[in-house]
Amino acid sequence: HGPIRTLSVLDDNALVRQTLERPGQGAVLVVNGGGSLKRALVGDNLAKQAIDNGWAGIVVHGAVRDVSVINTMNVGVKALGTIPLRAERDAIGEIDIPTAFGGVIFTPGDWLYADADGLILSPRRLHD
């Protein structure tokens, strides 16, 4: 769980990398990949970046890769699916703006809580 930071990208993870290279301070990165399963937006290297830089987790409305390795790591990652193909790296997308998928609007600064059953959102922290 943590406060939300958002990205909107399509088959391009350069902004995902740039964001995860910065201090996360316990935030959850929500990546709206348009639901595309053509390219993986997160793999084990980016999951390690998230851990090293203090991110609580990553939610991807799209695909990820290296799932067997990511599942052993101390970071929460949720995605629509998997694919072995790497993403493009053109740094095209939008950062920290409200983004929507699955009938939910993800607003930077709101709080996201996740477990094996799903996600919940709150405009404020739910516990200390």
Indicate the low-confidence ranges by residue numbers: none
Number of strands: 10
Gyration radius over CA = 13 Å
Task: Estimate the helix proportion, in percent.
Answer: 10-25%
Describe the largest sheet.
8 strands, mixed
The first-level CATH class is given as: Alpha Beta
Spatial separation of the terminal alpha carbons: 12 Å
Give a short synopsis of this structure.
The protein is α/β, with parallel strands linked by helices and 128 residues long. It has helices at 14-20, 44-52, 67-70, and strands spanning 2-8, 28-32, 40-42, 57-64, 76-82, 94-95, 99-101, 104-106, 111-115, 118-122. 16% of the residues lie in helices and 38% in strands.
Q: How would you sum up this structure, described in words?
A:
The protein has one domain (2-122): Glucose Oxidase, domain 1, CATH 3.50.30. The longest helix has 9 residues, at 44-52. The strands form 2 sheets. Strands 1, 2, 3, 4, 5, 6, 9 and 10 form an 8-stranded mixed β-sheet that branches. A two-stranded antiparallel ribbon has the order 7-8. It has 128 residues and is of the alpha/beta class. The model has no long low-confidence stretch (mean pLDDT 96). The protein has 3 helices and 10 strands.
